[in-house]
UniProtKB/TrEMBL annotation:
Biased composition (Basic and acidic residues): 41-59, 84-115
An example Gene Ontology CC term for this record: mitochondrial small ribosomal subunit
UniProt feature, compositional bias: Acidic residues: 71-83
Protein name listed in UniProt: Eukaryotic mitochondrial regulator protein-domain-containing protein
Lineage of the species this protein comes from: Eukaryota, Fungi, Dikarya, Ascomycota, Pezizomycotina
PANTHER family: 37S RIBOSOMAL PROTEIN S35, MITOCHONDRIAL, SMALL RIBOSOMAL SUBUNIT PROTEIN MS45
UniProt-annotated stretches for the region Disordered: 36-115
Molecular functions per Gene Ontology: structural constituent of ribosome
Organism in which the protein naturally occurs: Lepidopterella palustris CBS 459.81
GO terms for biological process, alphabetical: mitochondrial translation
Amino acid sequence: MRRNMYAWINGPGQVFKDPLPGSTNYMSAYDKTGNLIRKRDRAETPEQDIDKAPEEGGSEKAGAWGVEGAAADEEGAGEAVEDALEKEMRRQAGEEKRNRAEGKDDKLPPENLEDLRPFPLNKMFRSQPVLSEELREAIWARVVKDGVSVPVVSVEFGVSNERVGAVVRLKQMEKEWIGEGKTLARPYSKAVLAMLPKTPYDPKNNRRPVVHESINDLIVHPATRQQIWEPVSESRRFTRVDAGRAFDASLLPADDRIPHPELVLVERESLAGLSKDERTQLAAKRMMDEQAKREKVERRKAEEAKRMQVVPGRRWDFVFQDVSVESVGRDGRGAGGVGWRYGFPHEDRKKGQVKIPTRVEG
């Protein structure tokens, strides 16, 4: 076994000492003799087999990747990451075909899904792509320098809201460390990124960015984890809004709880037959209304903060606010009153209350 180990290290295993540039260099990408499988297959594959790979991006128009463009490709944004990788691989195959036609055949063939298996015995696991350093820098610049909101940046780059927020926070910390003169682990970062597939970013390319992940996945709400029997009349139309209210009175429907509900509206407008200019105008109007709504909420919070008096203490800060006795209402249960939640038990905690439905609303 020792002789076999050293024979492998000095033989086929030498290819793993220096990773290939721009490649994951996993064991699944090589055969037992140490030959790169995709390079060997390309040498044995006729030219007409490469023609089967469709070229991507040749007919796409240049332009800003905004809400309208993302909504048109929402179906692609909702696909699995493997589908996005396959599109990028087909594009690379098309570029390889053009390079071979022009005599520029010095590049390695593009990686396929088989090359993304880091564990040869685990056929179901494939290494998922990570954000490239250029893409992270572009996301940070759009949020911090350009002042674009996180949801818009998420739609532009095909990255989820949570990941955009994490990238901005980490990049901001990195900029602060550089300003303080701290040493960064650049070699470690480059080594890790060299071993993983990356979502590219090319600002000079007019094609739309490669979708990194699905950005409109719905998070499971804790109130929906229980099983509820809701009696409904046969003549009643039970919608998603009714389903949300059955679980919780304040639970919004799925169309409103997704990270980007505006994409659903744009898609519906597209199916309704509206032109691109009309859809763009409606999307811009919705964005302006949303911005005005956020500003109104911020002003209300600022006004509430002005009415409060904060007295700092040794362990806690005491907050005082002027209240009125009339805010409790005529019955003493007004929502604006102080302590209205206390002293009035729920009806279902009283004795003799019927807990099961006695009638069905039509």
